[in-house]
From TrEMBL:
Residues 52-274 form the Radical SAM core domain. Gene3D superfamilies: Aldolase class I. It comes from the Bacteria. SMART domains: BATS (SM00876), Elp3 (SM00729). S-adenosyl-L-methionine binds at E165, R176, R184. Its cofactor is [4Fe-4S] cluster; [2Fe-2S] cluster. One of its GO terms (biological process) is water-soluble vitamin biosynthetic process. [4Fe-4S] cluster binds at C66, C70, C73. Keywords: 4Fe-4S, Iron, Iron-sulfur, Metal-binding, S-adenosyl-L-methionine. This is Iron-only hydrogenase maturation protein HydE.
């Protein structure tokens, strides 16, 4: 093990705040002993903060319309090959009721940035879903007005997921035409002020990304003090400008997840669907190096393959029963158990907060 790597790992094990240089060093863990020690420490920190529970968060992808033209996403407005849909509210509610029967602690209402929905309509959707079971609701519908966020919170939304994707402002602007990292961060700050449990996150392996950028991603997540961080590999879609780019690297994704666990010990980290798409054992690997959440796709079967952010998305060809059974089995195989709670943040300000 290299001396600077051993020193950074020792600092992390002792709970000492890591510098940017430490983070860069750990992100460059070499195959063999360095990777093994990094993953073992991340797994230990996860166990110390969250025990052996795995939180299931059922995703309902209720619309694949999007006003944005992001270069990496199959939902981009310029994609004319995609079949668009919006799930009727009754079907969304029925899916939520089914999730409640399965014992899910969280429902994630996710969509492209679809201007069809007003803030009031999203609030009504949240209210109806909250009435369907005793679970937290996470909303993931992109950049909206502060008023819309306030309406969603008043309707009972508990959490909001808004991934920053990359902490490099120039790369962000290049990959997301017409948008800026500064505006993204402003909204993440609004969400914090309004009282949401806040989620963000980034992709690993974006063209033009460096290990320094990945370190800045982790430091931004720390600065934002997020309650959840979704970290997954970039997977190119053949109907986007990045179609010919390479996929994100599996090991680099796992190393980024592990370092994020060391820097963010009390943050929920999912074993993402994207990592399960990259490798059939990807989610198991992620659970072994810091992850404590899985987000199964509960969308009705007829819509699943139309929500193609990237191709061959894990779970897109299964129905909800198969997805749930597969995830339950996976969790047992790694010696963990599924949480029966809502999976709120363990941070003091979110403890014992009454469920709405």
């Amino acid at each position: 093990m290299r001396e600077d790597f051993a020193r950074a790992l020792t600092r992390a094990a002792g709970g000492i705040e890591l510098t940017r240089e430490d983070i860069i060093t750990l992100l460059q863990a070499l195959p063999g002993e360095e990777e093994t020690k990094l993953f073992e420490l991340a797994d230990r920190v996860r166990q110390e903060n969250f025990g052996d529970e795995v939180h299931l968060r059922g995703i309902i992808e209720f619309s694949n319309y999007c006003r944005n033209d992001c270069h990496y996403c199959g939902l981009r407005r310029s994609n004319k090959e995609i079949q668009r849909y919006r799930i009727p509210l009754e079907e969304i509610v029925d899916t939520a009721k089914y999730a409640a029967e399965l014992g899910y602690g969280t429902i994630v209402l996710q969509a492209g940035e679809d201007p069809y929905y007003s803030g009031e309509e999203l609030a009504e959707m949240i209210r109806k879903v909250k009435e369907s079971g005793n679970f937290a609701v996470t909303v993931c519908v992109g950049e909206r007005s502060r008023k819309d966020y306030e309406l969603m919170k008043e309707a009972g939304a508990d959490r909001y997921l808004l991934k920053h994707e990359t902490a490099d402002p120039a790369l962000f602007a290049k990959l997301r035409p017409g948008t800026s990292l500064a505006e993204r961060i402003k909204r993440l700050q609004w969400l914090r002020e309004i009282g949401f449990q806040v989620g963000s996150g980034n992709m690993v392996g974006l063209p033009g990304q460096t290990v320094e950028t990945l370190a800045d991603d982790i430091l931004l997540l720390k600065e934002l003090d997020v309650e959840m961080a979704g970290i997954g590999p970039f997977i190119p879609h053949d109907q986007t400008p990045l179609r010919d780019c390479s996929k994100g690297d599996l090991k680099q994704t796992l190393k980024t997840l592990a370092v994020a666990r060391l820097v963010l010990p009390q943050t929920h980290l999912p074993a993402t669907t994207a990592i399960g798409t990259l490798h059939p054992e990807g989610r198991k690997m992620a659970l072994a190096c810091g992850a404590n959440v899985i987000m199964p796709n509960l969308s009705p079967a007829g819509y699943r393959q139309m929500y193609q952010i990237y191709p061959e998305k894990a779970g897109s060809k299964e129905n909800a029963d198969e997805s749930h059974e597969k995830i339950t089995s996976l969790v047992k195989e790694v010696g963990r158990h599924i949480s029966k709670g809502r999976g709120d943040s363990p941070k003091e300000q979110f403890k014992n907060r009454p469920a709405r």
